[in-house]
Specification:
By secondary structure, the chain is α/β, with parallel strands linked by helices. The protein contains twelve helices and 15 strands. Strands 7-8-9-10-11-12-13 form a seven-stranded parallel β-sheet, covered by helices on one side. Strands 5-4-1-15 form a four-stranded antiparallel β-sheet. It has a two-stranded antiparallel sheet with strand order 2-3. Helix 9 packs parallel to helix 10. It is globular, with a radius of gyration of 20 Å. The chain binds 2-succinylbenzoate and magnesium ion.
Length: 370
């Protein structure tokens, strides 16, 4: 199949509440939305990149540049037989995984629609509902944190992740643990600590956490392997796992107990599934991270999370946790009885794009035609 047209859009979507991590604070998202046309089919993708290069080296402007100048023209020149063909074609461009991911997602939507199958089915999903939790940003004080967590529990979420940083780590975690002794609780440091902080991080050991996510540098595996031997909380890597190779290295080096998979970070669904499969073969569980995706990106997340080795609840909350109005007509809602989202069964990714609203939030467009 030949792609006939690719359209890129920069959009701006404000959050319902600011989101703060150890390294940055955001008020909304500026992702790049991809529209792909071939064989009379319209498919969609999203590069769920940060506005600024604070989580990864990429940001909205680098995604835009790399897609326009390299990735979209390369894809237009290629005869595609299967969605798995996209990753090797784009591999000529080094890195730039978020840029690649939006195009790769759209190709998966395209092929799934053409096959009349749901994306989850195409990927090998085995669940019709996926367990989800919520990622809670750094709050102004402990009272605000307890209130925020309490609100999410009232909404039906049954797993909570706290963002931590030096000065906002042991005490907030203790406070939430004391308030909810049985809550599934985990923390995420977004690369703010150093190996010298090992003793400090071991103070989280008594809180019975599911995991601690990416305590050390965004590009480190080596020191994480050392840290893992000095703390009891299971260690999870996020930022460091940028490809199947990095996942294999981390597993062989025993640098983590669990891997967070974000398809944007690894360049798409094909390599996400490879990481899933090689972790599974090594007996290591994975879980699905989030990049505060819009309803388009979220549909890909939910389908991927239906694979068998995604064993812990994902950071893929219902659309309303992020956006007052999303760019889809069929947002995901939380199944309160089991803190899950329902995996779409319609052909393709299942997202029904709200093109009128998408036009309203678009502030730049570009297109390429065959
Ligand atoms: O580290 O998991 C992270 C959001 C943006 C960048 C990095 C991270 C996050 C989250 C949010 O934790 C998860 C979500 O989408 O709800
Ligand atoms: Mg993380």
């Amino acid at each position: 199949m030949r792609i006939e047209r690719i359209e890129l859009r920069k959009i701006h979507l404000p959050y319902v509440a600011p989101f703060e991590t150890s390294g940055w604070r955001e008020l909304g998202r500026v992702p790049v939305i991809v529209r792909m046309e071939a064989d009379g089919i319209v498919a969609w993708g999203e590069s769920p990149v940060g506005t600024d290069p604070f989580y990864s080296e990429e940001c909205t402007e680098t995604v835009w540049l790399i897609q326009k100048e390299y990735l979209a023209p390369m894809l237009m020149e290629t005869e595609l037989e299967r969605p798995e063909d996209v990753t090797p074609v784009l591999a000529k461009v080094r890195g730039n995984h978020f840029a690649k991911s939006g195009l790769e997602f759209a190709a998966w939507d395209l092929f799934s629609q053409r096959a009349g199958r749901s994306l989850a089915d195409m990927l090998g999903g085995v669940r019709d509902r996926v367990p989800v939790g919520v990622s809670v940003g750094i709050q102004k004080d402990i009272d605000a944190l307890l209130q925020t967590v309490s609100d999410y529990l009232d909404a039906g979420y049954r797993r909570v992740k706290l963002k931590i940083k030096p000065g906002w780590d042991i005490e907030p975690t203790r406070a939430v643990r004391e308030a909810w002794p049985d809550l599934k609780l985990q923390v995420d440091a977004n690369s703010i600590y150093h190996l010298e902080d090992a003793e400090h991080l071991a103070k989280l050991d008594p809180f019975d956490l599911l995991l601690i996510e990416q305590p050390l540098a965004h590009n480190d595996i080596f020191d994480h392997a050392k840290l893992k031997r000095r703390i009891n909380t299971p260690l999870c890597l996020d930022e460091s796992i940028v490809s199947p190779e990095y996942a294999r290295w981390a597993i062989e080096m025993e640098a983590c107990d669990i891997i967070n998979i974000k398809p944007g970070r690894v360049g798409g669904l094909t390599d996400s599934r490879r990481i899933h499969d090689l972790a599974q073969a090594a007996g290591m569980p994975v879980w699905h991270g989030g990049m505060l995706e819009t309803g388009i990106g979220r549909a890909f997340n939910v389908a991927l999370a239906s694979l068998p080795n995604f064993v812990l609840p994902g950071d893929i909350s219902a659309n309303a946790r992020y956006y007052a109005r999303d760019i889809v007509l069929n947002p995901f809602t939380l199944n309160r009885e089991d803190s899950t989202l329902t995996v779409p069964t319609a052909p393709g990714n299942g997202a029904q794009v709200d093109e009128d609203f998408l036009d309203q939030v678009t502030f730049e467009r570009w297109e390429i035609r065959a």
